[in-house]
Design brief:
Two copies of one chain form a homodimer. Chain A contains 13 helices and no strands. The first copy, chain A, has 226 residues and is mainly alpha-helical.
DNA sequence: ACCTGAACACCGTTCAAGT
DNA sequence: ACCTGAACACCGTTCAAGT
């Protein structure tokens, strides 16, 4: 009975959109962005391509659903009795870490905006912007600037990590930064005077700290404009 | 003589990396991100796939080179006798408009960071951050926050435009925003109270103005922290 | 040195056929 | 209603063969 044996492979779970999305997330996490194909997915779920298409319209819908699951998990717990600034930082770090753990989410958020995932982030941030006392006319700008910054930096960070892993696997982050900083230090002192001077800062910086420092910069600007 | 006739198709120009990159840019602009394939490219250049691979290592190198050309053009003219703030705004708008005109550049900058294109933007911004009087220790954070914001928002904007064009072709921007705002206005008042309240702001906002307002927010934060 | 174009190893998606 | 898996129309890339 091949059918029984195959069903057993996904532990008796019936095929459903949820099962499919979770298998997709696992493939994306383990094998990377290119690791998810309808062939790897049908193999893992021990089924045919048509079965997946019965539950899901196409690959894009699958990616959107997977992104929603990860972002929802990242936003799952809300910090109570925190200042608006602390709460905004918490959301930012939550999204940052989620994208760091699932780099493909960064690609996805950069490509298909204003779906559920992004809306949830916007809502979370926006409430805290209101709590900050920003007048109504400035709330849209403040919230969307923060969201854009968060998604932009986090995605770029993830892309960096993927590129680094691709070109120099098994290289510790520190070694990679040192190598890149060495490259900056060798740049032309005329055309790239600033970048060159930043080589040291690049080598010693911490992505998360830097990310949060940028959030604080925007928060300071929001408070100053208030 | 088929060879002569084919050469004539690209107006006597010999095949070179430059010719190839320019043809790629044209395809990307006219046909969109998916419009560039080695088949459309060989058809346009009236040659074989191997000819292109002789000049270019792979599709990724082609995309990177195309991005560099567009960004270099966007940064071509530097504003003289401008305040640092004005100069930063000018760079930001230049990149924004370039990505708006060539949406595929946004995707590219979000995926393959720290290549020439991004480095050039970083350098331009960084010099003005220095001119702003930011102490050395804060320059890296300030410059990379600005660059991240610029690329993040501009890319998201481009992705939005592409999505809109894809799903609702021939719909004016205003109609699209109105439809989206109507969607926001219908959101659940509990879970999405903030987003719902922003429906009006979404409908009436201008992407460029909003983008610049975010830049000003960060600039205000940088000046406040100085 | 540079170009040709068929061939290879993949994709996402469809669909007649099964249960 | 749900699943199977072969088939279709594509991809990027390679490579023996030409000039």
């Amino acid at each position: 009975m091949p059918t029984r044996a195959r069903r057993a492979d996904r532990r008796g779970e019936a095929l459903s959109k949820e099962t499919i999305v979770h298998a997709a997330i696992e493939l994306l996490d383990v094998e990377g962005e290119d690791g998810l194909t309808f062939r790897t997915l049908t193999a893992r779920l021990a089924t045919g391509a048509g079965a997946i298409y019965w539950h899901v319209a196409n690959k894009d819908e699958l990616l959107v659903a997977a992104t929603d699951v990860v972002v929802a998990a990242a936003l799952a717990h809300e910090a109570r009795d925190a200042t608006p600034q602390e709460a905004i930082r918490a959301v930012a770090i939550g999204v940052f870490d989620a994208i760091d753990a699932h780099p493909w989410v960064g690609t996805q958020l950069a490509r298909a905006p204003w779906r559920t995932a992004m809306l949830d982030i916007f809502e979370r941030i926006g409430r805290r912007v209101q709590a900050l006392g920003v007048p109504h006319a400035g709330q849209f700008t403040a919230a969307s600037s923060l969201v854009s910054y968060i998604l932009g930096v986090a995605s770029q960070n993830a892309a960096n990590a993927v590129t680094a892993r691709l070109h120099l696997p098994d290289t510790p982050r520190g070694d990679f930064l040192a190598a890149m900083a060495a490259g900056w230090a060798k740049l032309d002192g005329g055309a790239y005077a600033f970048t060159r001077a930043m080589a040291g800062a690049l080598r010693d910086h911490d992505d998360r700290t830097e990310f949060l420092a940028g959030i604080d910069l925007i928060l300071a600007g929001i408070v100053a404009a208030r």
